[in-house]
Amino acid sequence: MIENDDFIIEFRKAAELPSANWVEWIHESKGRTHCMECLVLDKCWFTFDNKPMYPKHPFCHCKIQQIPYEFVVRVAKAESAYSKIDPYLFDTNGKYGHGKNKVFESWGYTINDALWLQREIERQGFNKYISGDYYLGKLNEQGQRINIRIELERKNGTGTVSFVSGWMVRPNGYITLNTPYGGK
Length: 184
Ligand SMILES: [Zn+2]
Hints:
Layout: H1 2-15, E1 22-26, H2 36-41, E2 45-47, E3 63-67, H3 69-75, E4 77-79, H4 85-89, H5 100-106, H6 114-130, E5 135-140, E6 143-153, E7 160-170, E8 174-183
Parallel strand pairs: 4-8
Antiparallel strand pairs: 1-2, 1-3, 5-6, 6-7, 7-8
The structure holds zinc ion.
Zinc ion is lined by residues 35, 38, 56, 60-62.
């Protein structure tokens, strides 16, 4: 019971943070023309302080509607396809030549860590997204991208390293990994 109470107190504290103020973008297709950028934002969730420019254009019929933080925490989800790590990140078939595998190998990570890395990037991505700890990236007709900083312990030494991962915002609090390593 103590644990539950603690959770409630923590939750109340968190709910008072500006980052706990979440909104859903709602695209209203009243006009004859459909703005593709507004259409891809439909039902996407952002913190009020860290949302795409609103309204996006003159005569934009989109709305933003507040959603309870508790709901965000419960429903939001971050997912990465395993293929983003293997073969992509570690370039296991030598097809990409991006050198990102070298960066991870210099920190002591190998293909044996691929599954763990996938889960860890999802875990941090989820936690940072629901904390509003993300940066808005490019928005186009494919969707709104966000960047999230991932921190890892070096496996072959002491200290932590960090890098930026790229995600796509999808409806209902769902984000999917575009690129595990987008840069430092
Ligand atoms: Zn609009």
